[in-house]
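Worked example

This section walks through a single chain of length 479. The input is the sequence exactly as stored; nothing has been trimmed or padded.
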Amino acid sequence: MRSAHEMAWAALLVLAASCGDDKAQTTEPVTGAAGSAGSAPAAPAAGSSGASPRHAGSAAPSSPATAGSSATAGSSATAGSSATAGSSATAGSSATAGSSATAGSSAAAGSSGAAAAQGGAGGAGAPATGGTHLPDGTDPTFQNPYPNYKSEIYGDDKLWMCKPGLSKNYCLENIADVTEALPDGTFKPFMDDLRTDHPYDCIFWYPTVNRSEEPTSLDFSNPEPMLSSIRGQAARFSRVCNVYAPFYRQVSLNNGGDRELAYKDVVDGFKHYIANWNKGRYFVIYGHSQGTGHAAKLISDEVDNNPVLRERMISALLIGGGLSDKTFTNIPLCSKPDQFNCSVGYRAYGKPTPPRGDAIPPGLACVNAAALGGGSALARGSFFFTKGSPYAPALGPDFTGSFGLYRKFFKVECKSAPSGGGQYLEVDYAREAGDMRKEFLNLTMEIGFGLHVFDYNFMIDDMIELVRSQSAAMSKAKP
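Given that input, the structure is written out below as C-alpha cells.
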C-alpha cells in the first residue's frame, strides 16, 4: 500500500501533466504512481496564455503554438523541491574536474549543422558571414520580439531567486563547497566556480514544491520551499551561463493552485527577461517536472515558430517531463555534442526497478547527455545534497561540504520501456574494478516516476558540459 506521501505525489503527477497541449495529451498517457495511468485535463488552447491584468505589459503578439507543442504528459510533481514534507531535493549538479572555464571556452570540434541535419528548420543553419555579438554575448542587431514589454510582476527583483545583479543571488550561495569521494576510498574538497559574467544565459523553472502561502499569492518572502531545487538543479549551471530563476505561482504539492495562472507567470517572466535583459545573448531554457511542463509549452508557443528566438536558443533541457521527437516542429532532439537549437529530456529509473505498466508513454524520448550517440556511459559527475534536504542520502561524516560529488560512479543508458512504450534513462552503479566508494542510494526506490527526484543528480555535469560544447559550437557558427 502506498503512503499518503506517495499518493500526494501521484495526484500531483496528473496535475503537472496538464501543463502541455492537447495533442501531446492524446499521444502520451499521463502517469500517476509508477504503473498507473490516467487522462489529464485538457490544456488551454494555444494563445490562451496571454497576459492577465496582473501580467500587464505591452507585448508584441506571441508566435503561434505549433502542432505537437509540448506537454508534460506524465511530467512529475516535485523533484528537487523544498524541505517541507513531500518535497524533493534533487541536488544535481556537477563539476568537471574542477574546471571553471567560461562557457564557450571549450569549443567542440566541428560545428553547428548537426541540428539542421537532424531536424530541418530547427537546425543550426549556415554560419554567420560576420560576427555581431560583443564579448559579453550581447548583439546590437538583436530585434526584440517583445518591444516595450514590461511586466508588472517580473520587473521587481523580489520575484527572482537568481539573476545577475541581485543583492542576494541564491544560485551563488551554499553550493560551491563540495566533498568529492575518490575511487581509492579517500575524500577531497572541491570548490566550484560560479559566476554571472558569462556571454550566455540560462533560464530555469523549478518543479512542484510545498508552499505555505495561498497558491495565487505573490508573496515569496519565504523562498525555502524552492531552494532545494534552485541549489540542486539550477545553480551549478552558473559555471557556464548567467542563471535566471524566477518564482511562479505553480500548482503546489500541498495546497493546489491554478495551472493556467502558473503558465501565465512563466510566459510573463520569459517575455520580461527577453525584452529587458537578454539583449540578444544565446540562451538555454531548462526545468524539471512541472517546471519542464511549463517550459515545454512556452517553447512551443513562443520559440518554436519564432526564428528570432529559436535561433538564439542554445538548447532546451526538459528533464522529468514528456518530451518526444514530436513535441516541437522545428526543434529536434540533440544527438551530437556540437549540435544546438535542440532539446534534451529523460526520466530516470534504477536498473533494479524498471518502469512498470504504461508508466513510459509511447514516443517518450530519452536523450542521454553522457552518450548522445547511444549506448551506455559513465556519468561524468553526480552531485547529492549532504544535508538540508528530505532526499539527502546518508553519505557519511566524511562529507563536510554542502554537496557530495561522485565522478563516474553511475552507469547511464537509454532503454526502451518493457511495455513497448517510449524510452527511459536506466541508472545503475558502475561497479568498476578497484572502486572503493560505497553504494549509498537505493536504486529500487520509486518516488513519483522511479528516481524522479534524482533526475538531475546523476546527469547534471554531463548536461553542463553539453551546454558548454553547444554554446561554443553555436558561437563559432554564428559569431
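What to look for: Confidence is low (pLDDT under 50) at residues 1-130.
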